[in-house]
């Protein structure tokens, strides 16, 4: 029976060192780390690796539930997968485990809180962007393609695929410019 630690941060500017230290102190034999969004399980290869080798009696350990995921559905699906494999989930903060019925109930509630927190983060971000736009500070991402050149070349008969190759971008980017 192994304790397998999982440390996750959302952006490359963040560090997993604090989580790793807590997981080591909690007795984790193996610790996997990654930098990926917790919105969904897409692109979280380290978590997938853990799920592929976890065995009956093993425990997946995370420092906080939101490190496992910010979607209630994803967290509950992960717990179900662990359950099906005979493994458990342990969260260090607050200390709980899915090895008993009370832990599973608490996990559901905390999963909903993590998802709600993600919604609040998005709302604050959107409000900040709107405020910056109103103040003339935020003008969006700078234009990286020469729209005039694309429209001119298209008018001269160059196709979207050819334009995409010439401009070193995707065809969908060309179509976005042409449909404006």
Largest sheet: 5 strands, mixed
| Cα Rg | 23 Å
- Per DSSP, what share of the residues sits in E-state strands of 2 or more residues? 5-15%
Q: What is the tally of beta strands?
A: 5
Low-confidence stretches: none
- Shape descriptor: elongated
- The helix tally amounts to 8
Strand arrangement, largest sheet?
Answer: 2-1-3-4-5
Mean pLDDT: 87
Portion in helices: 40-55%
Q: SSE order, as H and E?
A: EHEHEHHEEHHHH
Question: What structural class do you assign from the helix and strand content?
Answer: alpha/beta
CA-to-CA gap between the ends?
Answer: 59 Å
What does this structure look like?
The model has no long low-confidence stretch (mean pLDDT 87). The radius of gyration is 23 Å and the shape is elongated. It is built from eight helices and five strands, in the order βαβαβααββαααα. The chain has 180 residues and is an alpha/beta fold. The protein has helices spanning 17-25, 45-53, 65-68, 72-84, 101-134, 147-155, 160-167, 171-178; strands at 3-9, 30-35, 59-62, 88-91, 96-97. Strand 4 (88-91) and strand 5 (96-97) form a beta hairpin.
């Amino acid at each position: 029976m192994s304790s397998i630690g999982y440390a996750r941060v959302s952006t490359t500017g963040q560090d997993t060192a604090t989580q790793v230290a807590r997981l080591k102190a909690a007795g984790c034999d193996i610790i996997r780390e990654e930098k990926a969004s917790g919105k969904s399980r897409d692109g979280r290869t380290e978590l997938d690796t853990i799920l592929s080798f976890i065995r009956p009696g093993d425990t997946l350990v995370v420092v906080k539930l939101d490190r496992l995921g910010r979607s209630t559905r994803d967290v509950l699906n992960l717990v179900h997968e662990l359950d099906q494999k005979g493994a458990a989930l342990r969260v260090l903060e607050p200390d709980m485990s899915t090895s008993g019925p009370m832990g599973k109930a608490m996990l559901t509630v905390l999963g909903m809180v993590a998802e709600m927190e993600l919604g609040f983060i998005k709302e604050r971000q959107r409000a900040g962007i709107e405020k910056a736009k109103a103040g003339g500070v935020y003008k969006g991402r700078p234009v990286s393609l020469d729209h005039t050149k694309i429209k001119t070349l298209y008018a001269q008969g160059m196709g979207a695929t050819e334009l995409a190759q010439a401009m070193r971008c995707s065809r969908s980017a060309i179509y976005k410019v042409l449909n404006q």
